[in-house]
Amino acid sequence: MKKLVVYLAAFAALVAVASACNHNQTPKEEPDVPEDVVKAAVNLTEDGTANAYIVKPGSTVAFSVAYKGNSKTEEVGAAEAVKLMWQTDKDLVKEVFLDRKGKVAYAVTGQKEGNAVVAVSDASGNVLWSWHLWVSDYDPAASLYKVKDSDWELMDRNLGALSNKPEDNFKAFGLIYQWGRKDPFTAAARYVVQNEDFSYQDDGEAPIYDIEGKELPSFLSTAATDGSVQKSIANPAIFYKVYQVKTGKVDEYGEEIKEDVPRTRDWADVSNDDAWGGVSGVKTIYDPCPKGYKVPVATADGKTPYYWCSHAGSVWNNGRIDDGLYLPAAGTRVNYSGGLNISEAIPYGGIWIGTAGKASDNLDLYPTLYGQYMGIFSGKRTYKMGKDSRSQGLSVRCCKE
Questions:
Q1: pLDDT tens-digit series, residues 8-34
Q2: In terms of Cα–Cα distance, which of 120, 89, 155 is closest to 290?
Q3: What is the set of domains in the chain, with CATH numbers?
Q4: How many angstroms separate the CA atoms of 324 and 327, rounded?
Q5: Contact 397/276 with Cβ under 8 angstroms?
Q6: In angstroms, rounded to a whole number, what is the distance separating the alpha carbons of residues 303 and 80?
Q7: Helix extents (H) in 227-381
Q8: pLDDT digits over 311-334, tens only?
């Protein structure tokens, strides 16, 4: 009886195999991306790639994840998954998909405007590269500001901003960047209120969410030390801050001498003067601007995109308005904490340019390396080009390539 059962089972298996072969029923893998998403998607990289893309609300988009930034040769690597790192509103980005074979990511957006960061990772979950999705109806080409007597054409708003109107205040702030980094952080959603010991009554942080709408830890709470370029790529949502260590020495006044780590006050352990094209003059793989745009750099004779501005010719309204161009006082993220700094009593801000600040002749004695920025203050210091630590978080205003 046992032999008969075995024979019948074997015969049934052969019949099943034959039937599958006859009907071409080879098991199929589920597609990486639903067919309706593929059909509906607008290709954002048809005419070029970047680290940021402007995406219309209520749309489905696709973009290449094969290469880093605007490079055509530096490959991202074997991406096995796609993930929403953070978004400024629930359902801003509703779904993300990855075509692993085609090396294309897809995103489906809701009807809101805001900002998000999407990343691809390898089989072990390590982030390989990330992209900023600027979800907005904004069309930069329709309202570029032509800087007189120059080749510069500036966007009419900060990178990531949802408005260019002073009355919209915080919506016009845009995003915050550490000098030379491609990935953004949120600016203040409210004015910051600090105690005397630098703790916060109100830290000004805007909530950020995951793909399921769950609130994520703030950028302040996750800020970390000992940054590097590779760490920044692997952790695009981490603000890398500077810290101080005791040297065991005292100065001439008996005060304890402390030393910055890194001593350069950069966010990375190895500095790169050309991170944003300040040396080469070309857009780099770390440039945070959308395709067709880049972080502006100074000319050979030191002229910047803001050379024409004047305090006397401008008006203060939550920032400076000069010749119709609004430059909001968006505050900063502080390089020693990762926290926001902008008060209602003394609002200020700064806009990075891609040119490095002049280094000292003695880096052993004065090791700090800077990035250049244009300051925005209510007083006469406005428009004076300055330099700040590269770990500081400031605004970015893109110009046409």
A1: 344 444 334 344 444 444 344 457 899
A2: 155
A3: 35-135 (2.60.40), 140-400 (no CATH)
A4: 10
A5: no
A6: 45
A7: 229-234
A8: 888 899 999 999 999 999 999 999
